[in-house]
Design a protein that fits this description.
The protein is mainly beta. About 15% of the residues lie in helices and about 45% in strands. The protein contains four helices and 14 strands. Strands 2, 3, 4, 5, 6, 7, 8 and 9 form an eight-stranded mixed beta sheet that branches. The protein has a six-stranded mixed barrel with strand order 1-13-10-12-11-14. The longest helix has 8 residues.
């Protein structure tokens, strides 16, 4: 029987570097802000923090006000660079171009402003807004079992009630630091009816 892969819905979120976090949190010079764990994630060492930020986009010509989405969680731990991961719908809401990229591949992507709603501090990101390319996290052992390699593109069948869906253009990401799981965004999850309370699994289509 084909081994199944847990399919998780990855909602909009933010990654920040230490310098950005320190400034937004307003810590004194020479000190560092720390993220507090709200809930662990499936990937080892990764977590949703208790800190939330607003993202501010360009001015909406109809209202004369900046488009924005409030209360987006920062995921920890801190990263080498700032990155905002949104769905296509989110990008339209906040008024920025949608670039489908793998995490970390942010060159030439949309800019946005991060705002701490508590103290009003802002950091303007010159680039870094992406729609994450759907992907599967695997260990090297998983990759051998599935007979795939890092950065290989595969198709995954996800069977949810009334919405059987095959997700093409799914990139395999292999690292000993990963745990086996496929990540799709909220638009993709809604399209496949995969956002319920019960676990969702997929199989790679040969």
């Amino acid at each position: 029987m084909e081994k199944k892969i847990l399919v998780e819905t990855s909602a909009r979120h933010i990654h920040v570097c230490q310098a950005t976090l320190d400034y937004l949190m307003g810590v004194e010079e020479g000190q560092h802000a720390e993220l507090e764990v709200r809930a662990p994630l499936s990937q080892p060492g990764q977590y949703v923090s208790t800190t939330r930020l607003d993202i501010v986009g360009p001015v909406n010509p109809k209202t004369g006000k900046n488009r924005m989405i409030a209360g987006i969680s920062i995921l920890g731990p801190v990263r080498p660079a700032d990155q905002v991961e949104l769905s296509m719908t989110d990008c339209r809401t906040v008024g920025v171009a949608a670039f489908i990229r793998q995490s970390g591949d942010v060159a030439g992507t949309a800019q946005i402003t991060l705002r701490n709603p508590v103290n009003g501090r802002e950091v303007e990101m010159k680039e870094g807004v992406i729609v994450a390319k759907r992907h599967i996290h695997m260990t090297p052992e998983d990759a051998k079992e599935f007979d795939v390699v890092d950065n290989q593109i595969v198709r995954v069948l996800v069977s949810c009630e009334g919405r059987e869906t095959i997700f093409g253009d799914t990139v395999v990401r292999v690292s000993p630091k990963f745990a086996l799981a496929m990540h799709i965004d909220t638009d993709e999850s809604n399209a496949a009816n995969a956002g319920g309370k019960n676990p969702v699994y997929g199989v790679i289509v040969k």
